[in-house]
Design goal:
homodimer; 422 residues; alpha/beta
């Protein structure tokens, strides 16, 4: 598509979305919930069609020789379509955040000030591979009273178009304007570049993905960005740890589902406990097929089967059965390592020492910190927030699981009786 | 300064600030408060020096023929130095936001989740003219546990350097690292451009200023931005207004202090009330020296002394005794005008009709909305928040008065007893 033509098309899209967002912001909860439930039904009804369209993407990915993990994330089947529908139903049952009074206070001059939760406006979501993100995010954004513009990866183009068309059809018979949901033309990065300049019409853009995507969005966006970056998650096993508990937590954090952002990528171990803890732990990991990349001390303790960890390993999100292991001098060594190489996502300490735990919680600069629990709990459902658009690794506006509440902003509504400034 | 040399210098600055921010985040409240009070004393003691340095800026501004309003904003005197000291003392007496438990909840699996307020890290503040911003923002950022990097305008360079050096001297005798406050070299936009790429070290940048500055920062920043943009504030006088109240509110909003961002710039009037309201109101404005720029209907009602409002006028922040006036068809006309031409800052309605007021509050997309009160109340002190770094016109992270709480973020601290994901 020619650049100028593409620009005009995108400008038209975002203007329509902005107008639609004003209408969505005023729609009653029951209407939004009903629409979400109808979308769920439609996805189930059109399941065969969705899977057929998805097969085109999967076949193409196979032809291109994509990794098995990516093909798995891309694939839709009956179960996954059911999960997508369920996510919409769950979102419908969550309380509506719009209109919530966050704070109400009265000033000495009689002014009554209400801090009230309101929709953000137009939300852009840029994501890769998983097609379920399309319907999940449409449901969450609409429920929070926003319009949403989606841009999926080109590897999932047929799947995303199919899901989008099914869901959009439902909107036609509701009070929600169809322009409230839009799909950005998948003309690669060119369309994205133009889109990211539309700060007059788009209020926030949420990129979910790896280094390349996040960097591109950060560099080109004039729209405020809430990044959902990689998870380089750590577990630090203190010399005050309950060894049995450390075993279970580390194993769970690495092995239970290695392909997700809250899985552990680096295990840090206090030097005093390393010789006692590491041999059994690493042998258990190896039995599960985990490849270990260790620091020099680790490789002294375990002589066989451990690769050398490079500096690059400490900031690597493997998303796979690979684990880097480092022996540290003390708590401060662990904190410094995480603050230097981590991605500010989720990190855990295993310790029986409460003071040490508090020090870890205060000093590690990450969204979600755990004492004696697996990093795998960083998740909207696990926190009781319901569905989420993802995990924010940013510090502004939203940090950690980004669910309905984080898809809103607030305004101050001030009630007077003629007050003026002296 | 050569570009490469400047880049290295700025990189060194931001790295130091990042390291310092980790230490500031852990400093006890009493130490921070004591430091702020000492800064206040030092400013008062060095008052003569500060005013002498400021005179250099003021003289230069006069030589350059700057507007009287700008020279007024730039000028320091005994009273204004006292106000600066008082702002630091006020900030010291405010509760420390760091460590506040925003929410505490327990999950069915026994996990105890605390959402805890924490410092943001390194905050960049880009501002123009007023030298008091230097000490106000240093006080607020330190109190909230952050490091701060300041970039004032070149017109205030001597004043800012003087204030900064007095305050920095105080830090040397406290536990707060001196690197926690830094002044960006005033090598014009070149330094700013380099600074805005340091997203690895700087967590947020807050530009306070006009169109040019805000546009520059938005376009060049890789760091998250919270914009403090102009205030194109409206008052809508409904046909259900108490006329006497509308008089007082509109007069106050325009005349009491026209040079600030929460002053009214456009008055909207319902057509049914225009002929009754406008003649007296406008004559009162004219008596106060206000220049009126009216829409065609306004100019039909008031035949003399009213300039024609151009389309440009509707989005103009005059910061002066100038007012644009428009007669609208109804509430929806007022809402549409504000959402189209406003700057999402502060807008008011004068009405006795509660339903109409609610409609206005829900539909106008601005940070602070008033029913029967002057827009001039948008201010951290007036809201009871204490001092503020400014008024955010953005929707993400902070909206409206940005005070101590808005200079923090949060993290989730999760306490387990060995929980793992099934």
């Amino acid at each position: 598509m020619e650049n100028d033509h593409l620009s005009k098309k995108i400008l038209k899209m975002v203007k329509k979305a902005k107008l639609a967002s004003r209408r969505v912001s005023l729609i009653e909860t029951s209407v939004k919930n009903e629409a979400l439930k109808q979308m769920a039904s439609a996805l189930l009804q059109r399941s065969t069609y969705l899977i057929k369209e998805n097969t085109k993407d999967v076949n193409e990915a196979r032809r291109q020789g994509y990794a098995a993990a990516l093909i798995d994330r891309l694939t839709l089947n009956e179960k996954r379509v059911k999960d997508m529908a369920q996510c919409l139903i769950d979102t419908a049952t969550l309380p509506d955040p719009v209109g919530e009074q966050i704070k109400v206070f009265k000033r000495p001059n009689g002014l009554l000030i209400k801090k009230v939760r309101t929709p953000i406006g137009v939300i852009g979501i840029i994501y890769e591979s998983r097609p379920n993100v399309t319907s999940d995010c449409i449901g969450l954004c609409l429920k929070a009273g926003n319009a949403v513009i989606l841009k999926g990866g080109k590897e999932a183009i047929h799947s995303n178009l199919a899901i989008f068309s099914v869901v959009k059809d439902v909107l036609k018979s509701t009070k929600i304007p169809v322009d409230a949901i839009q799909l950005l033309p998948s003309a690669g990065r060119q369309a994205l570049k133009i889109f990211l300049k539309q700060d007059q019409y788009v209020d926030v853009v949420i990129p979910r993905g790896g280094e390349g995507l996040i960097r591109f969005v950060t560099e080109h966006s004039h729209i405020p960005v809430v990044k959902h970056y990689k998870g380089v998650c750590h577990t630090y096993v203190s010399d005050h740890a309950d060894i049995k508990m450390a075993f279970d937590i580390c194993y769970n954090a690495k092995v239970q589902r290695p392909g997700v952002c809250n899985a552990m990528e680096t295990m840090l171990v206090h030097h005093k406990i390393a010789a006692r803890f590491l041999p059994d732990m690493i042998s258990k990991f190896m039995d599960a097929g985990v490849e270990i990349r260790g620091c020099p001390v680790t490789r002294k303790i375990i002589k066989k089967g451990i690769k050398k960890a490079s500096r690059q390993d400490w900031s690597e999100e493997y998303l796979d059965l690979i684990l880097s292991v480092k022996v540290v001098d003390d708590l401060q060594g662990a904190i410094d390592h995480i603050n230097t190489y981590g991605s500010r996502h989720s990190d855990a300490i295993v310790t029986r020492d409460k003071k040490e735990a508090e020090e870890f919680l205060r000093s590690v600069d990450s969204a979600c910190l755990y004492v004696n629990a697996s990093t795998r709990f960083t998740d909207g459902y696990q926190y009781g927030f319901g569905a989420e658009v993802g995990i924010s690794t940013d510090k502004l506006h939203a940090r950690g699981p980004m669910a309905l509440e984080e898809l809103t902003t607030y305004k101050y509504e001030v009630y007077g009786t003629g007050q003026i400034r002296e």
